[in-house]
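Record 1 of the preview.
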Amino acid sequence: MKVLIVDDEQPARERLATLLRALPEYEVAGEAANGVEAVRVAAQTHPEIVLMDIRMPGMDGLEAARHMAQMETPPAILFVTAYETHAIEAFEAQAVDYLLKPVREERLRSALEKAQRPNRAQLEGLNQSTREETARSHICARVRGNLELIPVESVHYFQADQKYVTVRHDGGEVLIEEPLKALEEEFGDRFLRIHRNALVARDRFSGMERRDHGGFEVVLKGSEERLEVSRRHVAEVRRFLKSL
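->
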């Protein structure tokens, strides 16, 4: 079985790789030093198992695991942590198991034997627990069968259209299948609703103008795009712009 090793400390990665080499039924599929890199490597190498540190700078292991759950064949997650208290988070995230550092060979073997692809209940639990824990640093989208990570700080707006939501960002746009309401609840401190179908990043507002045929629209910084503001949200948008 292919195993991906994820830890921001190189000695920790080297130790796990050494332990895995003593287990002939497993092979190291790759290594990653942070959550963003882990998701990308996992999408490229398709490991059956991921050994992943929980606390890492930038994207932590819990968020990375949530993004990996979007893969067509999600890997089993074995969290690795130096702190017993983080094990609670691991189980809340529906990990198959967790390992305390320093990892011992027999404990690693036992955890690997338990590893299996997560079932639907595990994936739903992972999504729910990490959503409650903290807002994501990245949005994950499937583009031509591959996973693409978009930093939330680069997103201009979310706009819903039936079952899909368009994510307009610095590098273009992608489609995701997440409810706009859930995105608002998760990122409400960074985005403002201007319409039942649109959330705009607070740092992208340039102004609001009245349209020739009535109504209002938002002007975005550095863009010629205009987004409609619904009547019920005009006052809130106006208050926000006055506070800038």
